[in-house]
Every structure is written in structure tokens, then in C-alpha cells.
Amino acid sequence: MATESPWRVQGEAKRQSILDAIPAKWRLADPVPPPTELRDVTESYIQQYLSEREIEITESDAVDIAAQTTTGRWSAVEVTEAFCHRAALAHQLVSCLHEIFFDAAIENAKKLDAYFAEHRRPIGPLHGLPVSLKDQFHVKGVETTMGYVGWIGTFQGKKDDPRFRTEESELVRELRNLGAVLYCKTSVPATLMSGETINNIIGYTWNPKNRLLSCGGSSGGEGALIALRGSPAGFGTDIGGSVRIPAGFNYLYGLRPSSGRMPYQGAANSMDGQSTILSVVGPLAPTARSLTLLFKSVLSQQPWYHDPLVLELPWRDAVVEEIRSWIEQAKAGKSTLAFGIMHWDGIARVHPPIARGLRIVEQTLKRLGHKVIHWSPPSHAIAGTLGHQAFNMDGGADVSHHFGLSGESKAAQIIINDGVSISMTELAALNIAKREYQKQYMDYWNSTAGLTGTGRPVDGLFCPLAPHAAVIPNEYHYVGYTSFVNVLDYTSVAVPVTFADKNVDVHPADASVAESAEHIEWKYDADTYHGAPVGVQLVGRRLQEEKMLTLAEYLGDEISKTVQAK
User: Fold this and answer.
1) What is the architecture of the domain spanning 6-28+40-305?
2) What per-residue confidence (pLDDT) applies to 334?
């Protein structure tokens, strides 16, 4: 009889240890129906295992929760226990957690309650708010595997390293200072370089709204957990779309800030030292205002004094007030805002649900009286080539090393190829080409000032996050809709729009183009995609986080009104 590979045994043991960390009282007694019988496990399905009080707490957004916990109306312990319970259920439904440390979280919550009882004030603006973390961030007492079997029981693959379970990432330190309660770490694809979440520890993380589909990646566990309201908000990272894709696939908001705004110091990563396109930290949440709360709170900790790559750029209330004044003037008919809209990039034709989502956005903008400009930028194929070269500059050596620690297999969905590393001359040429492309795009954006009627270039760009809604497993082949933003280092917010509907989203918007061999067209099955979340992204220029968050909150609400009116 064949002996099972040691890495499989090790992965299975780790997977079981995660399940064993769930308290017995929260374990599901009966098996969950298969996805062919029950696609959607959000809302009423998961609610059946919760009390009315737990539902009230866990279905409040981060802003409302913080309003209760920072004033003592809700205890940190009660809120933490409710989210721990719901997170435990979420993992059993879609396999979205890598690390569970509920006991430590509840002890921390008790300390927060004791502090409030003594001082009658919160520790910080996130006092008592549970926050989930992508499994790149080190937390004391907790392992970080980042999906690699070879990292189990080590510090990033290094055995007997004193930092094992003692290190904390800078973001973690700042969240603790703000009063947040940390209680779980979420699943990622090994390497982080995939739009799906799969690894040899927890297997595949499924989409809670349609378990035939992917939750996205690489912050996929965050997306799935928050979609199930097992977390009110969490932090992921984004190098090619890894915050925005899971946000869009799970009907959430997600922020990809420009590099230099959020602290990455002390977090695990793939290809550490590759700086042509930097990975950035960003929040995910069900509401745009929750993103603002987390982003603004972290900036209040002055991360530029603790991470050498963070810019000394505090939260800018003046920008928010200016954008809000523009919005109010537009509502009064005194002025207008202007937006670009890109229905497709000339490379990958989008599926019918995405095309409909963009039409809803355009209808909303026009209903509000805003100027809409159809986007004709420098070729996105150039951005795709630059991104591919940057992500593969070491010939896959880094990820091959980490897979080699255990001898485990590499998932087919990973976009890193084995090859030859580039030379210093080639690296310099790549960086020059990136800079030249950034300048071309800047010039194009500036040129729209002659079309907007406002005297300034477009205030933002709406475009797809992917050619498809939450994707069929192993069918995510094109990341160009998100990765161009990373090449440009622009700010982008994922905005939820609607859900795929097999009765509406039947035919390609332009069958003649979709069938052309010159364009990419991915598999579309209206029945399989039915119920999948449809999101878009609102893109701004570099370091425009305050502006984009303010616009995302305003326009996200208006998009919802358009959908509800249909």
C-alpha cells in the first residue's frame, strides 16, 4: 500500500488543528448540504446557528459597532464572542481560516472592558472592535504559514528561529494600540499570487454566496469571512488585485491604497525585495465608511515613525470636506463631477453580469447629473506585460524555494512561472518602461480636463475588477483589470453593484467581438454564475485615498438606489 506523502500528512494535521481550535459548542452537528443543493450559505443559513443578539451584533458594520463599544453600551467581550462564534461557523461552511485564537481574543476583550470600567473612556477609536487579518501578519503566540506546508512550525520556513510565535507585524501593534480585538487569521493561496484561494493546508476556500465559485484571492479568506459576517472588517494585501478581487467577488468594499500609506513592516510576503511593483496593505468591509474608519485609525498611529516605507501623510480632513462640498454642489445642480468609464480594456471581453454592472454604474452617474467620459487610455496590454515581468523577475526562485521546504505540489492557479531570473540591466529597463508607461497614463488622465466641463481631469475611473463575477474554480486567467492599477500605483476602491442573474445575463453584450479570435473570452455559464456578486472598481490617482473613499461611500449608496429601483 502506498505511503501518503509527508507534506500531505503535515498539511492534514494542520487542517485538523484549525478545526480542533473551534469550541465544541460551536461545531456543526450535521453536515452542510453540498453546493449543488445549497449554493448560498450567507444570511438565513448561517443565522440559524446564532442567537438574535449575536445576529444584531455581527450584522452591524464596524462604524456602528465602534460607536457602541467605545461608549460602553456594548461590552468588548460580548462583541468578541459573537464574532468568534460566527467566524467558527464561517470556517466550517467555506474553509476560510488559517489560525484561530479565540481564547486570547476574549482575554484581551476582558482587559478592554476592565479599562473602560476604570477610566470611562476607550483605549482608542477601535476599542472592542474585532478585526480579522490575512495570514501574512505576525501575531504573538500564533503561527504564520501563508499557505505553505513548509512554514508549519517555523518562522517563514526557518526552523528554530526565535521570532517564531514571538514576532508582531507593525500593523498588528498599531491595531492593538487602537483597541482592536484580533481573533483569527484568514486563508490565502500559497505564494499569494493567485486570484483564487487554495493551498495544501485548508484546501479550497469557496464563495459564500455561491459555493460553486471562488471567493477570490489572494485575500480570499478575508473576503469569504467578511461576506459571512464572521468579521466586521479586516486587512489584506494587494499586489495585483488581492484586496479588490475578493471584495468584488464577495459583495464588499475594499481599498487598494497607493504604496506608502499603510504599514507593511514585519509582515510575511512573497518575493520580498521585489520593489518594481510593491504590495500594499488595505482593508475590506461591507461598507465604505468602515474602510475609512480602519484606514484613518491606522494613520492616527503615525506609521511613518515605525515603517521606513510609509510616507508622512496623515489623514487629510480638508480633502474629504472639499469632495463633500463638490457632492453637495452637484446635488444642488450648481456643478458636476466627472468620471471615466471603461467597459472593457480591449483585451478581455467581460461577461454579461459585469457588462450589466457597468451599465448600472453609468446609469447612476448620469441620473446624478455627472459627466461620463468613455475611457481610451494607453494600451493596458503594456501594463500586463510589465506586471508579468515584475512578478516573475526572479524566475520563480522564491516560491520554488518555499514549496521545496516540504516538497508539496504547486496549485495550477498560481501565476508565477519557473524560469530564468532577469539581469540587472533587464531590471533597469523594466523600471524605465514602467516609469514611461506611468507618464503616458498620467498625460492621458490630464488630457480629460478638456472634456469634463469642470476645468479639471476626471475625478475617478470606473472599470471592471475582472472579466467575470466570482469565478469558476481554475478559470481565473486574466488579472489585467486589477494589475494595471498596481503598475500605476493608483488608489482604487472595489464597490459592490449587483448579483449575476441567469434570467437577465444571458447573451454577451457584443457577440461578434466576444467570438473574435483577437480577444480573450472566458467561459460563461449563466446557471453556474447565478447569484455571484458583481463588483466594479473606482480608480483614482496616486495617494488619493481620502478622495476615493469619500466618493465610494457616496456613489456606492447611489448605485444601490439604482439597483433597488429596477
Assistant:
1) Alpha-Beta Complex (3.90)
2) 87
Which is more confident, 307 or 517? 307
* 14, 134, 209, 371: the active-site residue: 134
CA 389 to chain centre: 23
Question: How high is the mean pLDDT of the chain?
Answer: 96
Q: Which residues of 319-339 are buried (b: 16+ CB within 10 A; e: fewer)?
A: ebeebeebbeebeeeebbbbb
Is the CATH number of domain 318-565 3.90.1300.10? yes
Catalytic annotation present for 134: yes
The pTM assigned to this predicted structure is 0.97
Cell numbers given for 189: 493561496
Phi first, then psi: what are they for 223, rounded to 5°?
-60, -45
Joined grid coordinates for residue 7 = 507534506
Domain locations in the chain? Answer: 6-28+40-305, 318-565
Q: What is the pLDDT of residue 417?
A: 81
Q: Residue 322 has which C-alpha cell? A: 472639499
**Active-site residue, selected from the candidate residues 95, 242, 279, 290:** 242
| Torsion angle in degrees (nearest 10) through CA of 462, 467, 473, 479 | -70
CA distance 372 to 379: 20
Question: Does 187 belong to an annotated binding site?
Answer: no
pLDDT surpassing 90 at residue 57: yes
Which residues pair with residue 374 across a beta bridge?
341
Across the range 19-45, mean pLDDT stands at: 98
